[in-house]
């Protein structure tokens, strides 16, 4: 006999409301990855393959800021606008969504990332899909720590923007989330790529055909996202404080 609690959780994961959330995550993640990875291809094309100059970082940083703000905004009221497995992991660690729901979010995000990179590969035939790389002066451990710190800042901003006690207008939160993502790319782009997003790194690696150093873009961001969630919910905003449900709580099961 299936336990009642397990059955109710499973029903919540496959409900119509949950399916709408998964589709929303797919669309928003697809749009973000298309713009983020596509901006690297565009900058490489404009600079004749030499992306070592400042514009090689500036263009992707601006694209990341604009694309993430828009992607989070369009799914904010539906799925919570995660667009990133690190954000989803943080929400699960904080108990704002269930683990089964988080797994479906991850699946939607990774499929969307692969599809976006495939679209770029098929349409921009003279340019290969770029992957995130570690600079020669960086170690794998150092790059993972850097990506973890960047993800911490990003996820902490997401939790702050998602705090209903601030009473911010709907459009304000996604804007600040985009700002911090763009700033992180400017700060770490030349060293680790400034991914902060395991799905984005996974999609480009899958299409490119190389998973070298892929663990850097999963371990660091996931640990950083989980730490940000624990710090915000247990140190900055303790659980005993009155706090309304976040936008992403709609399908928490």
UniProtKB/TrEMBL annotation:
Keywords: Membrane, Repeat, Transmembrane, Transmembrane helix, Transport. Pfam families: MIP. InterPro entries: Aquaporin-like (IPR023271), Aquaporin_transptr (IPR034294), MIP (IPR000425), MIP_CS (IPR022357). One of its GO terms (molecular function) is water channel activity. The chain crosses the membrane at residues 26-43, 55-76, 103-120, 141-161, 167-187. It comes from the Eukaryota. This is Aquaporin TIP5-1.
